[in-house]
C-alpha cells in the first residue's frame, strides 16, 4: 500500500462570528474532503502537543514522525535546504532578508520593498565571499522568494547560539549579533556574522543594480538582516532508513521543502504551482498521481490557506480550502483506493481572527482499502473530533500510516 498525504497549511481554525459560528472548513463547500472523511477514519491531532502552536517547520517534523523537541535546532537550515543550498551537520544556516538601510545602518524598510528586481543577481554577488579575518569560513548565499534569502556558513568552530541582526521593525538600527552562550564557538560565529553584515552592505550598496534602483527611485536592497541561526540535527535519519519507504514532495514553500528534504524526500517541481491561493491544484494533483507510481509516499503541501489566515481574510481562506478540495477530488478520481491511501490534514491551526498559529488540534482523515471507517461524514475540526482515531499527536501519525501501508515491524514476538 502507498500513500498520498495532503496538508493544507494552517487550514484548521476556530468558529467565526461572521460565518454564523462556523469554522472556514465548515463554511466551505468540500464534497471531496467530506468523501475522504465518510469513506475513511477521522480524528483530531495535536501537531506538537495540546495547546502548543507549532511553526510550519516543527509541525512538519512532527507529522513526518520526528519529535521536534529532539530534532529541531533552528529554522535556518530548513530554509537553506529548501532554497537548494547544501547544509551539512556542522554548518550554521540562517534565513535572511534583503533590507533598505541608510549610511548609519538605520533600517528604512526591512523587506527592501518586498518585490525586489534582480534579487538573484544581487544574491549572486554575496555568494562564495571570502572573509579577511576568517579565511577558513565558506559563505553560501541564495535568494529564495521576494525579499527572502538563505545563508549557510561552512567551516570549523561554528555555533548556532547567536542572536539575530534583524530587529523585526523599521526605523531601528541593524542589531549587532551577540553570542548566546559562553563558548568560543558562539563568540567566533557572532564575529563572523557581524563582519559579513558589513561586507554585505559594502558590496550591495555599491552594486550597479542598486544604482539603477536609486535612479528609478525604487527601494535599494543594500543590506542583509540575519535571523534564525540553526544547525541540522545529526540524528535525522531519512524516512527510507527508518521505515523503508521512498518519499517525494510536491510544494513550493522553502521552509516546508527544507523539512521534506531533511527527511529524505525528493522534490518534484510543478511549473504551475506558486504557493498562493491561485496555485494550480490540478497540476499538483496530476503530478502526485504520476509520482505515486514511482514512490511509496507522496507528500502534497498547499500553502494558500495559511497565507489567507495571516491576512485575516476568511473569504480567501474558504476559497483556498475549496481549492484543496478540488485537488483531493482529482486524487480520489484517479487513484486506486486498493493501492494507495489518501490522508488529509493541516500542519497547525491558523485562526483568521488571530492571524497567527494557535495550539488548537487539527482535523485528520485517512481513507483507502482496509482502513476502518467511523460515523463521520464531514471533514471539519468539529466533526472529526468524534471519529475513530480519537485525538492523537503529530508524531503518532507516521507509525499509523506505515502500519496501514503494511510496512510496520512487530513489537515483541
Ligand atoms: Zn504551516
Ligand atoms: Zn503561518
Tell me what the structure shows.
This protein has 413 residues and is an alpha/beta fold. The protein folds into two domains: 2-72 and 237-404, Alkaline Phosphatase, subunit A; 80-230, no CATH class. The protein has 14 helices and 13 strands. It has helices spanning 24-27, 31-39, 56-63, 68-71, 76-83, 119-124, 184-205, 208-216, 239-243, 254-262, 281-291, 304-310, 314-334, 394-404, and strands spanning 2-8, 41-46, 92-101, 107-109, 138-143, 148-154, 223-230, 247-250, 266-267, 297-302, 340-345, 362-367, 390-393. It starts with a strand and ends in a 9-residue tail after the last helix. One zinc ion is lined by residues 10, 306, 310, 350, 357.
How many domains make up the 3D coordinates? 2
Number of helices: 14
CATH topology category name of the largest domain:
Alkaline Phosphatase, subunit A
Which percent range describes the beta-strand content? 15-25%
What low-confidence regions span 5 or more consecutive residues with pLDDT below 50?
none
Query: What do the pLDDT scores average to?
Result: 95
Category by helix and strand content: alpha/beta
Amino acid at each position: 500500500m502507498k500513500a498520498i498525504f495532503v496538508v493544507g497549511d494552517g487550514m484548521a481554525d476556530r468558529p467565526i462570528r461572521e460565518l454564523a459560528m462556523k469554522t472556514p472548513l465548515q463554511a466551505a463547500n468540500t464534497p471531496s474532503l467530506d468523501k475522504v472523511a465518510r469513506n475513511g477514519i477521522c480524528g483530531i491531532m495535536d501537531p506538537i502537543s495540546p495547546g502548543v502552536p507549532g511553526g510550519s517547520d516543527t509541525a512538519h517534523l512532527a507529522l513526518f514522525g520526528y519529535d521536534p523537541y529532539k530534532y529541531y535546532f533552528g529554522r535556518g537550515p530548513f530554509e537553506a535546504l529548501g532554497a537548494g543550498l547544501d547544509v551539512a551537520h556542522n554548518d550554521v544556516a540562517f534565513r535572511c532578508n534583503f533590507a533598505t538601510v541608510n549610511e548609519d545602518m538605520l533600517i528604512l524598510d526591512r523587506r527592501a520593498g518586498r518585490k525586489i528586481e534582480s534579487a538573484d543577481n544581487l544574491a549572486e554577488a554575496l555568494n562564495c565571499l571570502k572573509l579577511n579575518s576568517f579565511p577558513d569560513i565558506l559563505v553560501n548565499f541564495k535568494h529564495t522568494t521576494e525579499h527572502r534569502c538563505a545563508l549557510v556558513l561552512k567551516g570549523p568552530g561554528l555555533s548556532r547560539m547567536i542572536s539575530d541582526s534583524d530587529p523585526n521593525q523599521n526605523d531601528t538600527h541593524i542589531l549587532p549579533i551577540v553570542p548566546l552562550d559562553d563558548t568560543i564557538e558562539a563568540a567566533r560565529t557572532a564575529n563572523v556574522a557581524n563582519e559579513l553584515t558589513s561586507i554585505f552592505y559594502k558590496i550591495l550598496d555599491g552594486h550597479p543594480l542598486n544604482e539603477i534602483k536609486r535612479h528609478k527611485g525604487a527601494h535599494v536592497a543594500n543590506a542583509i538582516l540575519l535571523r534564525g541561526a540553526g544547525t541540522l540535527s545529526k540524528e535525522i535519519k531519512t524516512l527510507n532508513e527508518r521505515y523503508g519507504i521512498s518519499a517525494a514532495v510536491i510544494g513550493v514553500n522553502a521552509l516546508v521543502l527544507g523539512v521534506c528534504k531533511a527527511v529524505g524526500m525528493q522534490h518534484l517541481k510543478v511549473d504551475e504551482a506558486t504557493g498562493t491561493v491561485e496555485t494550480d491544484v490540478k497540476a499538483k494533483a496530476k503530478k502526485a498521481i504520476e509520482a505515486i507510481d514511482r514512490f511509496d509516499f507522496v507528500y502534497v503541501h498547499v500553502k494558500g490557506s495559511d497565507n489567507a489566515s495571516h491576512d485575516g481574510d476568511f473569504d480567501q481562506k474558504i476559497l483556498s480550502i475549496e481549492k484543496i478540495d478540488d485537488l483531493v477530488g482529482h486524487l480520489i478520481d484517479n487513484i486506486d483506493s486498493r493501492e494507495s491511501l489518501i490522508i488529509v490534514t493541516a500542519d497547525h491551526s491558523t485562526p483568521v481572527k488571530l492571524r497567527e498559529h494557535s495550539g488548537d488540534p487539527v482535523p485528520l482523515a485517512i481513507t483507502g482499502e482496509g482502513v476502518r471507517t467511523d460515523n463521520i461524514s464531514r471533514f471539519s475540526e468539529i466533526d472529526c473530533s468524534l471519529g475513530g482515531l480519537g485525538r492523537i499527536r503529530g508524531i503518532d501519525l507516521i507509525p499509523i500510516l506505515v502500519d496501514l501501508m503494511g510496512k510496520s515491524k512487530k513489537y515483541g514476538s
